[in-house]
Amino acid sequence: MNNAQLPTINTTRLSLRWIRPEDVDDFYAVYSNAEVMRYWSTPPLPNKDAASKLIEEIHDLSADMMSGAYEQAVEWLKEAQSYGLLLRFKAAGSKLAARLRTNTQSSPSETLLKRKKCKEELLQVEEKRIRKALAEANGSVTHAAPLIGVTYPGLIYIIKSRHPHLLDERTPVRQRQRRK
Questions:
Q1: Is 80 left (phi over 0), alpha (psi -120 to 50) or beta?
Q2: What percent helix, strand, coil does the chain show, rounded to 5?
Q3: Percent of the chain whose pLDDT exceeds 90
Q4: Is 107 a residue whose pLDDT tops 60?
Q5: At 123, which CATH number?
């Protein structure tokens, strides 16, 4: 896979693009910093040659490795407060998936199984987010909806149509007095 196949994501303050060999100085500045790397499972890079080698290895990543990186980004962004950021990330993921799909050869039945598994995993992630938001909002759907970036009616629809077992985790519906 080459970098021309991946999307560049531009915002007003940031541009995300595929790493290039000429980025070695900046790459080394980040990945050699002990403070930055203290939460990673690898030690800081010892020199610029190691940074260059790592960039070369990144360019040779398989589709599975790239998919794993995307999934990790999903995990990191699941707590993001910006609904707009999540929408842009989802759009970038869709573009990446489409481009990866065109580069891999698989049977139709294999593709259907992968799609089904992906849909199931998405439902699990959605359920976790809703469950967490309901817990934080003490069961109030009204207060949980903004925590996950949807409207009250949207969250009600999602719960009723895709996660009806979560209805038990919300507070009971209160009937309001009709005005006379």
A1: beta
A2: 65, 0, 30
A3: 11
A4: no
A5: 1.10.10
- Quote the Cα angle for 44-46-52, to 5°: 95
Domain of 166, in residue numbers = 108-173
**Token pair listed for 91:** 């759009």
Measured between alpha carbons, how far is 138 from 155 in angstroms, rounded to an integer? 15
In one-letter notation, the amino acid at residue 6 is L
Q: Is 16 helix (H, G, I), strand (E, B) or coil?
A: strand
In a domain, 21, yes or no: no
User: Among residues 119, 155, 113, which one has the least CA distance to residue 137?
Assistant: 155
Number of domains in the chain: 1
Tokens of 89: 């990330």
Tell me, yes or no, whether 142 lies in a domain. yes
Q: Is residue 132 part of a domain?
A: yes
Between 21 and 109, the more confident residue is 21
Say whether pTM exceeds 0.70. no
Q: What are the residue ranges of helices labelled H in 60-164?
A: 63-77, 83-103, 108-136, 141-147, 152-162
Closest CA to 128 of 162, 173, 89, 172: 162
Closest-CA residue to 77 (of 65, 62, 92) = 92
Judge whether 133 lies within some domain: yes
What is d(CA 87, CA 118) in angstroms, rounded to the nearest whole number?
A: 18
